[in-house]
Write a structure and sequence with these properties.
77 residues, mainly alpha, 3 helices
């Protein structure tokens, strides 16, 4: 099954915009909630993603970001 390369070119700006929104939400949550309890971080991340108007993120991805943010002090990656 061949895919038209122009479809890829059309999709990439949309994907890049989505990833930039996710990254901003994660960074903002990391800066304000790094090292806090997982449940608190998870909720803050969900709110940050909503504020960025992120429509879809795989739940396991949100959970993993929340775990990483919770496990690290503020500002650490």
């Amino acid at each position: 099954m061949a895919i038209d390369p122009s479809e890829y070119d059309k999709s990439m700006p949309i994907v890049a915009e989505h990833l930039a929104k996710v990254e901003r939400a994660v960074e903002r949550t990391r800066a304000t909630h790094g090292g806090r309890a997982y449940a608190e971080v998870h909720q803050a991340l969900v709110v940050a993603l909503q504020a960025e108007d992120v429509q879809r993120v795989v739940p396991q991805v949100v959970e993993e970001f929340a775990r990483q943010i919770s496990d690290s002090p503020t500002g650490e990656r």
